[in-house]
Task: inverse folding
């Protein structure tokens, strides 16, 4: 005789699963990865594969031998963390730094809180910021691009990111027009395509937008978070630009430079560390936008997306408490 | 440089001083006068807040004790199963009646073997919820659901689910008979019973009040209300509650005659020395002499 | 056709799988023995008034309602009472029931068994409600709340709308759809009777658009005799679960929200199920008590998914055999639909007033659960039609924090299961929420008593 199953309703289940969500994110990251391979070649593959491998291995070891619980590496979340971490570093980073970063991301950023879904901060960003603070020189020395089909340039040559050029030059007393005209500054088209200095995964704006669009269509992320972040940055820097065009660069430049697009679409939308309600997500996104701009314009670092997201991650529980969904049947008095 | 040092020291010093004064006044204003006896009584309690005394926690119980001592000069009705009441009585300079040591017993033996699973359960690990869904894996509507609500609620770590039987096993060394499991079990399978003389006790290990025919279908060792024990007991310690035999611990003299006559091995004897082999050796195949002993031992391991 | 309406907040769209939508209703012959449970409705089970050896006629009263929330039980067949005992019903527990050895199908006196459509309503409002009470009619969507209580409008309230819940938003089930197609006029007369009983001038049939033929037929029937069916209109609804939730369908049709913790009558609406409406027609016009219903037997592996007209007390395995037998790979048997139905552990449970369907699910349809960590994606919250936070309630209930669950309105949960359906981590959210709801409800009740 059959042994029937007794379970509480509902007895059917939607097709969504954690694994599918993670695979969607991985697919969405692939265009940017391909662009990175195009611009940085072998190094981009090296750092990404290493970072992913260490993340997965670290999670497996911790779950198997430290927690002695079920092993869940097959859900793909460690792969996503590994990819995002790799995308945030220079392509010529020494291998051991990548390993340390990945270990910190998984070990401290994720597993110490209990694993997937329990981490208050985005693990990839925890790893990234840890590396940025520990190895400041290595983490801010960016190799110049050498497109596969362009003129070959050796790895040894390094160049600054557009944002750091901006910051240094403004400090040095140059006006914005002068800076934009300088040879260090990439052309706008190169900015969009990713032919510029910086972390190898955050550069190709087109590829990242493509991935982000895929996630929005697949309903993995809500469109509100990235759009509001970008809008906030645009409006804030726009106001600054209007007030003093000599000191502050135009808002479009801010949108396409640095890790803003990667952060807005892939890291601020991390489910575990962002608020639940749409209202909460909008507050969260505005916060990220404002903090990013404040750090970029007046802070010590040229780039501020990572810090902004981590700071707002800390506010997530508070936002969740404050912004509840609208209940059915609440009578207006 | 020195200036900065002095200024910061001054500012912080003054700030600290002002705050200290404020704190002092606040503490004075909101001071709670409490009988120091309460704290002393509480220090003699287990501190597990198990609720076995009927109060919300140990502090409330201590308050009640001090109050009762002041008003009635007696601790009657107040009993903490997990502490030495003599110590509490000494603090309050009262005498306490010696109370019998007790233990929680699970009145179900519907293990995986005795009550084989007929359905498969998939859902939240909460007995209280599973209880609303179905009768139980084996089909017994009064039996243990095996999801461990009692284990979660035991404040003394005295209950563990036995992976072999699928039932919670009471650790006799740790159990203080606080009664948390009695409250936790949605089917009321636990009972607080006296540990008995020399820790030996006899009880009916079943709670099924269904008719015999229905019980038989779901469990090999369920009470079928055949009343043999009821008729055999020389001390009238056994009563029939619905379709279930119940041994009154205050009347039971542990003669174990009921254990012998039970056709289904439902009545357990715990911690008795093994019986001498009887003439009817064939009878020794009965599970009663083996099962309870072995499970009790497992529980202590 | 009126424009589509729906409730605005939350909801999911499970695969519809209306396999038996085109299968006409088949009468199931009476079995040799029927077992009629006394507890067939929400509330107290009926008191049995027959004894072993009594002869009963079809439609004769055998159990009287006990207490306020309770309904009468009638004999579904003619025969001798074999015994009054207990039977394992769909709950998995043994409940009191009357075993009747079927001999014949002789109807009790005063029952009109003809098929003639009676359009003249002779009874007045109070008489109608008394008749409904006498005939033991309950909500036949699955909740089995006694209908006569629902129709008694409290002092100071006015029923404006009678809403007929024909959404049938549960996947698989088709019994209401078939009834609408085959008993259209009787059903509409039932709506009229309910409107007269509660003194409402508007009757709205809320029906999901996936039942296009039923919508068309209803529209046509109403248009054919506008005088008779005055005040009744058909409102197509978007196919979305839980469209058939009482609060959701009121919101969809009237735009009014039932206040939290209040009854639907606060919005001037009375919601009645399709099968109940038909039963009301039969009770009021034909004096026929509720002794049978339409049951959908379905499932992807079932050979012949069908709709059967079944007398209560018929064992379910008879229906399963009629639908082609129990498929080999069946893992779950569900009394009701897949979203809110109840799993059953045996195949021979008796059909009762709330059995809208018997769903036989294979291992493919009901995949085993592989629960992982909550990733705080918030999907449960976005699909909750009541605007609650299931992930939070789940966690609070797990740790017995019943003050918190109450504060977060766990009692508003309608247990539709949308949250659990959509959860990517496969967490049994509704299990925990139900547990929390039961415990919180008990705490609130004991506090109110003090």
Result:
């Amino acid at each position: 005789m059959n042994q029937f199953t007794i379970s509480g309703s509902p007895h059917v289940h939607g097709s969504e699963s954690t694994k599918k969500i993670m695979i969607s994110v991985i697919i969405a990251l692939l265009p940017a990865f391909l662009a990175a391979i195009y611009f940085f070649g072998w190094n981009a593959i090296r750092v990404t594969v290493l970072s992913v491998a260490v993340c997965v291995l670290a999670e497996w070891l911790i779950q198997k031998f430290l927690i002695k619980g079920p092993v869940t590496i097959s859900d793909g979340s460690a792969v996503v963390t590994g990819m995002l971490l790799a995308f945030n570093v220079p392509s010529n980073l020494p291998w051991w730094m990548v390993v340390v970063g990945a270990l910190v991301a998984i070990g401290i950023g994720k597993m110490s809180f209990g694993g997937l879904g329990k981490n208050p901060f985005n693990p990839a960003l925890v790893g990234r910021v840890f590396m940025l603070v520990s190895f400041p020189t290595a983490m801010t020395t960016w190799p110049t691009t050498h497109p596969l089909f362009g003129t070959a340039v050796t790895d040894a040559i390094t160049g600054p990111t557009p944002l750091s050029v901006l910051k240094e030059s403004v400090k040095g007393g140059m006006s914005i027009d002068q800076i934009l005209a300088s040879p260090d500054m990439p052309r706008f088209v190169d900015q969009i395509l990713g032919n510029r200095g910086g972390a190898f995964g955050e550069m190709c704006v087109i590829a990242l937008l493509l991935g982000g669009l895929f996630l929005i269509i697949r309903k993995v992320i809500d469109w509100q978070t990235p759009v509001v972040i970008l809008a906030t940055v645009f409006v804030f820097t726009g106001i600054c630009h209007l007030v003093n065009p000599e000191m502050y660069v135009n808002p479009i430049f801010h949108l396409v430079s640095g890790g803003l697009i990667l952060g807005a679409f892939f890291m601020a939308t991390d489910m575990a560390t962002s608020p639940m309600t749409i209202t909460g997500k909008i507050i969260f996104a505005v916060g990220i936008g404002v903090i990013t701009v404040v750090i970029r314009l007046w802070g010590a670092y040229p780039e501020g997306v990572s810090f902004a997201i981590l700071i707002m991650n800390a506010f997530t529980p508070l936002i969740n408490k404050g912004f509840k969904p609208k209940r059915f049947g609440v009578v207006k008095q | 440089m020195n200036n900065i040092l002095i200024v910061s020291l001054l500012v912080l010093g003054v700030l600290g001083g002002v705050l200290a004064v404020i704190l002092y006044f606040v503490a004075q204003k909101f001071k709670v006068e409490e009988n120091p006896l309460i704290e002393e009584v509480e220090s003699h309690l287990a501190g597990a807040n198990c609720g076995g005394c009927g109060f919300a926690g140990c502090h409330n119980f201590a308050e009640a004790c001090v109050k009762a001592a002041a008003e009635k000069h007696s601790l009657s009705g107040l009993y903490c199963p997990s502490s030495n009441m003599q110590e509490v009585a000494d603090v309050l300079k009262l005498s306490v009646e010696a109370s019998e040591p007790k233990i929680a017993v699970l009145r179900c033996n519907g293990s995986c073997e005795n009550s084989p699973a007929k359905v498969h359960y998939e859902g939240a690990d909460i007995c209280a919820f599973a209880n609303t869904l179905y009768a139980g894996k084996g089909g017994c509507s009064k039996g243990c659901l095996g999801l461990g609500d009692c284990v979660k609620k035991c404040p003394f770590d005295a209950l563990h689910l036995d992976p072999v039987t699928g039932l919670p096993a009471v650790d006799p060394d740790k159990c203080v008979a606080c009664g948390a499991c009695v409250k936790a079990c949605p089917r009321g399978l636990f009972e607080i019973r006296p540990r008995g003389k020399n820790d030996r006790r006899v009880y009916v290990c079943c709670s099924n009040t269904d008719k015999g025919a229905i019980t038989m279908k779901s469990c090999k060792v369920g009470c079928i209300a055949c009343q043999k024990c009821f008729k055999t007991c020389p001390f009238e310690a056994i009563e029939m509650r619905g379709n279930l035999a119940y041994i009154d611990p205050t009347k039971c003299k542990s003669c174990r005659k009921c254990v012998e006559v039970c056709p289904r091995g439902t009545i357990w004897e715990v911690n008795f020395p093994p019986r001498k082999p009887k003439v009817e050796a064939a009878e020794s195949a009965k599970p009663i002499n083996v099962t309870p002993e072995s499970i009790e031992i497992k529980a202590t391991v | 056709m009126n424009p589509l309406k729906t409730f605005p907040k939350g909801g999911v769209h499970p695969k519809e799988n209306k396999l038996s939508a085109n299968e006409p209703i088949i009468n199931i012959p009476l079995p040799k023995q029927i077992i009629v449970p006394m507890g067939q409705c929400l509330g107290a089970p009926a008191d049995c008034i027959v004894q072993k050896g009594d002869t009963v006629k079809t439609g004769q009263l055998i159990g009287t309602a006990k207490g306020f929330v309770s309904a009468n039980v009638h004999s579904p067949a003619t025969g001798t009472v074999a015994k009054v005992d207990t039977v394992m019903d769909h709950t998995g527990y043994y409940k009191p029931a009357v075993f009747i050895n079927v001999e014949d199908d002789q109807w009790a006196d005063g029952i009109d068994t003809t098929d003639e459509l009676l359009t003249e309503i002779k009874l007045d409002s109070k008489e109608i409600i008394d008749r409904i009470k006498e005939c033991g009619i309950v909500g036949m969507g699955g909740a089995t709340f006694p209908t006569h209580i629902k129709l008694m409008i409290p002092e100071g309230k006015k029923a404006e709308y009678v809403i007929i819940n024909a959404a049938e938003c549960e996947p698989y089930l088709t019994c209401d759809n078939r009834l609408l197609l085959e008993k259209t006029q009787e059903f509409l007369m039932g709506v009229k009777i309910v409107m007269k009983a509660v003194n409402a001038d508007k009757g709205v049939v809320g029906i999901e658009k996936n039942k296009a033929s039923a919508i068309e037929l209803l529209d046509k029937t109403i248009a054919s005799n506008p005088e008779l069916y005055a005040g009744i209109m058909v409102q197509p609804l978007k196919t979305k679960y839980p469209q058939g939730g009482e609060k959701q369908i009121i919101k969809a049709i009237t735009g009014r929200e039932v206040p939290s913790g209040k009854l639907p009558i606060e919005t001037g609406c009375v919601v009645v199920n399709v099968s109940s409406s038909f039963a009301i027609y039969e009770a009021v016009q034909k004096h026929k008590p509720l002794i049978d219903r339409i049951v959908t037997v379905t499932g992807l592996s079932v050979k012949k998914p069908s709709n059967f007209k079944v007398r209560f007390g018929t064992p379910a395995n008879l229906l399963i055999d009629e639908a082609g037998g129990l498929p080999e790979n069946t893992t779950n048997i569900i009394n009701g639909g897949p979203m809110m139905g109840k799993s059953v552990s045996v195949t021979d449970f008796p059909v009762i007033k709330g059995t809208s369907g018997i769903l036989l699910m294979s291992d493919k349809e009901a995949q085993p659960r592989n629960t992982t960590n909550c990733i705080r994606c918030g999907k449960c919250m976005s699909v909750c039609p009541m605007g609650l936070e299931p992930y939070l309630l789940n966690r609070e209930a797990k740790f017995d924090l019943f003050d918190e669950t109450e504060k977060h309105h766990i009692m508003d949960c309608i247990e539709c299961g949308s949250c659990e359906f959509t959860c990517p981590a496969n967490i049994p959210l509704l299990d925990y929420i139900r547990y929390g709801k039961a415990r919180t409800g008990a705490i609130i009740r004991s506090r109110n008593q003090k």
